[in-house]
Design a protein that fits this description.
This protein is of the alpha/beta class and about 300 residues long. It has two domains: about 50-85; about 95-280, Alpha-Beta Barrel (TIM Barrel), CATH 3.20.20. Helices cover about 35% and strands about 15% of the residues. It has nine helices and ten strands. It has helices spanning about 30-40, 45-55, 55-85, 95-100, 120-125, 130-135, 175-185, 255-270, 290-300; strands at about 100-105, 140-145, 145-150, 165, 190-195, 200, 230-235, 235-240, 245-250, 275. A four-stranded parallel β-sheet has the order 1-2-5-10. It has a two-stranded antiparallel sheet with strand order 3-4. A hairpin with a 2-residue loop joins strand 7 and strand 8. Helix 2 (about 45-55) packs across helix 3 and helix 8 (about 255-270) packs across helix 9. The longest helix is centred in the N-terminal third of the chain and has 31 residues, at about 55-85. The N and C termini lie far apart (about 120 Å).
Length: about 300
């Protein structure tokens, strides 16, 4: 067929022939039938016949089957041996309460008032133990310092300690404190009491023994509250990091450590479970002796 003179287009009156498609082929049905015969599934009889003609395949299948069970049983035995001979995990260590439970710090003078004087006290704190235990989930309570002079003193200064063996009257009495400790233990709460042995009130009975007081360093010092870090007792100046109402204890002296140890043992015998040392950074200052041996010595005295 020539396309000349038609610009490459086929004339409308020209008949064009096409190759027959596969579905139009007379051999299509025969091919489909042949494909079905070629790809049919093997039956059990076919496999048996194949085994009889090719015994190698039978031995190969049996070998793989036996190998599977050998490997499976080997892995099972290995797992059993690992379980039996592997060292057991060490028992979980029994941690002290301050490492295994939540602590809750409380300033009793500002927490709960049971008398209506707008000053918190130990009885008011007892009334809130259910909340502290169930809602907060505390395992121990850390009481701020509650010693005599802490809140009530004639110098109108918070934080003084006039006597380590009595409770500040604003917080309650010794009977109130014992009741508080019993109530805490009944609720599964430990009691930790804060003690500050860095300094005492300038009117504390310990100031009668001047060897227990820290000498005022030469050259002068400024207290952390401003002003001269000097407290005059019996006409002699002594060092006070927190101002003239306080005086620092000389914790290098054995007599001071003995007094401090007696205080700690007294309160431990009253039922408290621990002691929080406050202001430890100022226990020993500007000395070749570090503070760590001091605190270690105190601990060995208290728990001996």
């Amino acid at each position: 067929m020539s396309l000349s003179g038609t610009n490459g287009r086929v004339p409308y009156d020209e008949e064009v022939g096409f190759l027959p498609t596969l579905k139009d082929s007379p051999d299509t049905n025969e091919n489909e039938a042949g494909q079905k015969d070629t790809y049919r599934l093997l039956t059990r009889e076919d496999l048996m016949q194949l085994d009889s003609k090719e015994p190698l395949w039978l031995r190969l299948r049996w070998g793989l089957f036996i190998l599977f069970w050998i490997v499976w049983i080997g892995l099972l035995l290995a797992a059993i041996l690992i379980i039996v001979f592997t060292p057991k995990c060490p028992p979980r260590p029994v941690l002290p309460f301050w490492r295994s439970s939540t602590g809750y710090w409380v300033n009793p003078f500002a927490y709960a008032d049971s008398t209506g004087d707008k000053i918190g006290d130990l009885r008011g704190l007892v009334e809130r133990l259910g909340y502290i235990k169930s809602t907060i989930g505390a395992g121990f309570i850390v009481l701020s310092s509650i010693f005599s002079g802490q809140f009530t003193n004639d110098q109108k200064t918070l934080g003084l300690v006039d006597d380590f063996y009595t409770i500040d009257p604003a917080a309650g009495t010794m009977e109130d404190f014992k009741y508080f400790v019993r109530s805490c233990h009944k609720n599964g709460i430990h009691v930790v009491l804060t003690m500050d042995f860095n300094s005492v009130s300038a009117k504390h009975s310990w100031t009668d023994s001047t060897s227990m007081l820290e000498p005022y360093p030469s050259g002068g010092r400024i207290s952390r509250l401003g002003g001269d870090a000097r407290t005059v007792i019996q006409g002699t100046g002594y060092y006070s990091v927190f101002g003239s109402q306080f005086v620092d204890l000389n914790l290098r002296e054995s007599v001071t450590l003995d007094r401090v140890s007696d205080v700690a043992k007294f309160w431990l015998n009253e039922g408290i479970d621990g002691i929080l040392l406050d202001n430890v950074a100022f226990y020993v200052e500007n000395s070749a002796e570090p503070t760590t041996p001091i605190t270690k010595e105190l601990g060995s005295k208290w728990f001996a």
